[in-house]
Amino acid sequence: MSIPVLHGAPYSVYVRIARLAFEEKGVAYELRPVDIFAAGGPPPGYERLQPFGRIPALEHGDFRLYETDAIVRYLDEAFPGPALSPEAPRERARMTQVMRILDNYGYPSLVWGVFVREAGSEADRDPVRLAAAIEPARRCLAVLEELLAGPFFLGERLSLADLHAAPMLTYLALAPTGRRLLEARPGLSAWLTRMAGRPSLAATRFPAEG
Ligand SMILES: N[C@@H](CCC(=O)N[C@@H](CS)C(=O)NCC(=O)O)C(=O)O
């Protein structure tokens, strides 16, 4: 079968989550550029891959899939390489819980609320919205640190929960306010340093990381 194609852009949190899964599994893939924020919108026909106009979208042979959670679970189960999901029901549930916390509370506060409003493009910066995001971001970091069960979210082994969190916290750390919030969470800061040292993170750096 042809190699999987991931449609998206290197600046995207969710595209990076999917790329991290490819990298950690050791699976070759093609990143096909889709700039969702381009002036004219996504390329014509993209709605057949992602009807909600978001990135990423996956094509693997004749199989098409969107929603990052579905994509990374498919990659984990359909390809050889280290397992990124635990077997035990409670651990699986915990992993899903961390991922949903990140989607529902982390992405809006850490990425859009703090990073974009403080360190995003000139047009996106907004001190009022930044101020409003600080408490939700602080709460999110507190909860995440509490859930950290060892060197990784689930303890000794890397899982999809770590791959979901790393891009969001990487963006957070690029903003001065985000750095301060993270410094108040030494466990989470140490986790982020550990994650940043992985080859998968090095291979998928955001353009904003320089
Ligand atoms: N629920 C989607 C979310 C994907 C998402 O929000 N991607 C962002 C980029 S990180 C996007 O496409 N944003 C475009 C927009 O908000 O219009 C998923 O899990 O794949």
Automatic annotation (TrEMBL):
<dbReference type="InterPro" id="IPR010987">
    <property type="entry name" value="Glutathione-S-Trfase_C-like"/>
</dbReference>
<keyword id="KW-0808">Transferase</keyword>
<feature type="domain" description="GST C-terminal">
    <location>
        <begin position="88"/>
        <end position="210"/>
    </location>
</feature>
<dbReference type="Pfam" id="PF13417">
    <property type="entry name" value="GST_N_3"/>
</dbReference>
<feature type="domain" description="GST N-terminal">
    <location>
        <begin position="2"/>
        <end position="83"/>
    </location>
</feature>
<dbReference type="InterPro" id="IPR036282">
    <property type="entry name" value="Glutathione-S-Trfase_C_sf"/>
</dbReference>
<dbReference type="InterPro" id="IPR040079">
    <property type="entry name" value="Glutathione_S-Trfase"/>
</dbReference>
<protein>
    <submittedName>
        <fullName>Glutathione S-transferase</fullName>
    </submittedName>
</protein>
<dbReference type="GO" id="GO:0016740">
    <property type="term" value="F:transferase activity"/>
</dbReference>
<dbReference type="Pfam" id="PF13410">
    <property type="entry name" value="GST_C_2"/>
</dbReference>
<dbReference type="InterPro" id="IPR036249">
    <property type="entry name" value="Thioredoxin-like_sf"/>
</dbReference>
<dbReference type="GO" id="GO:0005737">
    <property type="term" value="C:cytoplasm"/>
</dbReference>
<dbReference type="InterPro" id="IPR050983">
    <property type="entry name" value="GST_Omega/HSP26"/>
</dbReference>
<dbReference type="InterPro" id="IPR004045">
    <property type="entry name" value="Glutathione_S-Trfase_N"/>
</dbReference>
